[in-house]
Write a structure and sequence with these properties.
The chain has 411 residues and is of the alpha+beta class. It has one domain: Cytochrome P450 (Cytochrome p450). Helices cover 50% and strands 8% of the residues. The protein contains 17 helices and 10 strands. A hairpin with a 5-residue loop joins β1 and β2. α8 packs antiparallel against α12. It binds protoporphyrin IX containing FE.
């Protein structure tokens, strides 16, 4: 067994893995991690230490490892929950399935599954098409396109809002609050996220009140009814579920669309291949998710007991996270892993996670991503970056990979 001190750590600089600059060169760093320090403790700006796991096999194993738990309360010997658990809105945020373990996780996931069905997603196909066309048409009139704000973000935000039945006037505030919360939590600075989260929960309580008085054919009504029918869904869990669906439903898919567009613009031969062979969209959307994975690092887990990965031991109660972006570029799993290959077959990437927390929205994300990219390419045969590549900046943060802006020439 190798003790962490024996890792060739002196050669790997301890970088701030949440910074925008790090994201630009992250793939080189991950390659070194996989070779030299596959289980590597880093200190986040918040002062917390997190063990990063970088090899494909290890990341896949940890996502399914029940010695790792999502809720710190499930680490034996941990008496209390997070220090702020007395705040009602914090309890709401803790009660979402991504932060829970069995049996609560399975109960909540089972409930949302009843409403979030393949049929519902299929029903959204026409709407995603018309929305993408409408946004592309607006960009044509304007003669330019900031892909994030004008296209990649409004598509998933509108669709998840329509699925849930969130009235239009609440969508912008929800997006602003969700981004503020994600930006702060992504550096693991939970305190900085509190004001936005507090406002989000307060706003959502208003929306729920209106919805309770005016039930409709939407997912929020279905969840309210599940609660009313005594399906073991508490008020906090209902709120927590909706907050999770809003955040997870758009903060990630925006990156699939925009990162996918960037990957294509950086690989013009592949872009041309896709234009000539629309049949390739099915494999292309998987390759886009693998190449610039929208979720860079899976959400953190805690060790319930001492564990060992790649011969390195991690003590009980430690935070551990798998770098999905690194696993997805692991040469032991993918041939020419650093190459964008839109025809790649057997693409077993981990962009949507694995195990019990496997992304609930993956089929919706794939559908939105495919339609958004296809509509973009069909409408704009001369798509180009309108700033030099080196001017593009990745948003800071540990968990997501997304650009701040992606200005494009469309003529
Ligand atoms: C390209 C877009 C997306 C990507 C890359 C993505 C990725 C992921 C990943 C990696 C996880 C697991 C995290 C972990 O285990 O730490 C996850 C979970 C989840 N995702 Fe997504 N997601 C996307 C879109 C969506 C959409 C559109 C929705 C909802 C409508 C959604 C809802 C969820 C939910 C509810 C969970 C938690 C599942 C659970 O805990 O059982 N996601 N997603």
């Amino acid at each position: 067994m190798i003790a962490p001190a024996e890792l060739k750590r002196e050669r790997l600089e301890p970088l701030n893995v949440t910074s925008s600059a790090f994201k630009e060169s992250a793939y080189d760093y991950y390659a070194r991690l996989r070779n030299e320090a596959p289980v590597y403790p880093v200190k986040l700006p918040s002062g917390q230490t997190i063990w990063l796991i970088s090899r494909y096999d290890d990341v896949q194993a940890l996502l399914k490892d029940d010695r790792l738990v999502k809720s710190k309360r499930n680490v034996p010997g941990t008496k209390s929950g997070p220090a702020l658990g007395f705040l009602p809105f914090i309890r709401v945020l803790e009660r979402n399935m991504l932060d829970l373990d069995a049996p609560d996780h399975s109960r909540l996931r089972g409930l949302v599954h009843q409403g979030f069905t393949p049929k519902l997603i299929e029903r959204m196909t026409g709407r995603i098409h018309s929305l993408s066309q409408e946004l592309a048409w607006k960009a044509k009139q304007k003669g330019e396109l900031e892909l994030i704000a004008d296209y990649a973000l409004p598509i998933p935000m509108t669709i998840i809002s329509e699925i849930l039945g969130i009235p239009e006037r609440y969508r912008d505030p929800f997006h602003r609050l969700s981004t503020a919360a994600v930006d702060s939590t992504s550096s693991s600075n939970v305190l900085a996220a509190l004001p936005a989260m507090w406002r989000m929960v307060r706003l959502l309580r208003q929306v729920l009140k209106v919805k309770q008085a005016n039930p409709a054919d939407d997912l929020m009504t279905a969840l309210i009814e599940a609660k009313a029918e005594g399906d073991h869904l508490t008020e906090d869990e209902l709120l927590g579920m909706i907050v999770l669906l809003i955040i997870a439903g758009h903060e990630t898919t925006v990156n699939l669309i925009a990162n996918g567009a960037l990957a294509l613009l950086e690989n013009l031969t592949q872009l041309e291949l896709l234009r000539q062979n629309p049949d390739l969209y099915k494999t292309a959307i998987e390759e886009c998710a693998r190449y610039y994975s929208p979720v860079e690092v899976a959400t953190e887990r805690y060790t319930r007991e001492p564990i060992e990965y790649a011969g390195i031991s991690i003590a009980k109660g430690q935070q551990v996270a798998g770098i999905l972006a690194s696993a997805n570029r692991d040469e032991s799993q993918f041939v020419s892993a650093n190459k964008l290959d839109l025809s790649r077959e057997k693409n077993r990437h981990l962009a949507y996670g694995q195990g019990i927390h496997y992304c609930l929205g993956a089929p919706l994300a794939r559908l939105e991503g495919t339609i958004a990219l296809q509509t973009l390419l069909e409408n704009f045969p001369n798509l180009q970056l309108s700033v030099p590549r080196e001017k593009l900046k990745w948003r800071p943060g540990l968990n997501l990979r997304g650009l701040e802006r992606l200005p494009l020439k469309v003529k």
